[in-house]
Design goal:
Structural class: alpha/beta
CATH architecture: 4-Layer Sandwich
Bound molecules: zinc ion
Strand order of the largest sheet: 6-5-4-3-2-1-14
Number of strands: 14
Shape: globular
Mean pLDDT: 95
Low-confidence stretches: none
Distance between the termini: 21 Å
Number of helices: 7
CATH topology: Metallo-beta-lactamase, Chain A
Strand content: 25-35%
Helix content: 10-25%
Radius of gyration: 18 Å
Length: about 270
């Protein structure tokens, strides 16, 4: 009988990347942010690692996944939660192969239906064919409601994850909630029906691209407004462009809100 992790355990989070699709610095750019000496202005592509007991969840695997996993000393991945199929969030999936060398079970990947269909096209050799001997043994699951992730070495631990439907321009994407932590990158709006899933959060990570409007992302002002209505005890902003200087944004955000940065760690209640 698998046991679910107890209430006394916490959700431990490491932010692996906080940059928009180009990363920051942007190649060829010599603006103030791209040439900043503050390490918090260096942003790899957005990703996040979440541990509850011995269950380890990776949220997105973009082009920087390999160096992020080295930096954070990630030793095990029990599932990948995929917010959506944009290049900057999935192109590192093949780099999960070393986590499968142990010949335990496949790594399940959970995402929304439209992104699952796109991933089958983008990674046909993984998700459609699968016959090549070196293929990463990843298994795609389309999710609409809460699901359970178990530790792959079979120690019986598991954790419940709640997908949070959101919109990213015209695309349907997912955020994810684990305990009292929620991660909502690449969103331009969160529909009313999803707001009820974001109550009583200790920590929220939320999309905030820049001050200028963008069709697929929120501005700083839009993110502040949304963060206030969600009302998490602490909100960190992510997916930031090179138009955001860390210290400048930090200084003007309301209490309880801050820009995230690569390597940021925190805990939330389960
Ligand atoms: Zn993105
Ligand atoms: Zn995106």
């Amino acid at each position: 009988m698998p046991k679910t992790v107890t209430d006394s355990q916490t959700v431990r989070v490491t932010i692996l990347g906080t940059g928009t699709s180009t990363g920051v610095p942007v190649l060829t750019c010599d603006c103030e942010v791209c040439t900043s000496s503050n390490p918090k202005d260096r942003r790899l592509r957005c990703s996040c690692f979440v541990s509850v007991g011995d269950v380890n969840l990776l949220i997105d695997a973009g082009p920087d996944f390999r160096q992020q996993a080295m930096r954070a000393e990630i030793k095990q991945v029990d599932a990948v939660l995929i917010t959506h199929h944009h290049f900057d969030h999935v192109v590192g999936l093949d780099d999960l192969r070393p986590f499968l060398f142990d010949k335990r079970t496949k790594i399940p990947c959970f995402t929304v239906g439209t992104s699952a269909a796109a991933l089958r096209n983008m990674f046909g050799y993984i998700f459609r064919d699968g016959s090549y001997p070196g293929v990463p043994r990843l298994e795609l699951h389309e999710v609409e409601g809460p699901f359970v992730v178990s530790n792959r070495s079979g120690n019986g631990q598991s954790v419940e994850v709640t997908p949070i439907p959101a919109v990213h321009g015209s695309l349907h994407v997912l955020g994810f909630r684990i305990g009292r932590f929620a991660y909502m990158t690449d969103v331009s709006d969160i529909p009313y029906a999803s707001m009820g899933l974001l109550e009583d959060l200790d920590v929220l990570v939320l999309d905030a691209l820049r001050d200028r409007p963008h069709p697929m992302h929120m501005t700083i002002e839009q993110s502040i407004t949304l963060a206030k209505s969600i009302g998490a005890r602490k909100t960190y902003f992510t997916h930031m462009s090179h138009e955001i200087l860390h210290t400048e944004l930090e200084a003007r955000l309301p209490q309880g809100m801050a820009p995230a940065f690569d390597g940021l760690q925190f805990e939330a209640g389960l």
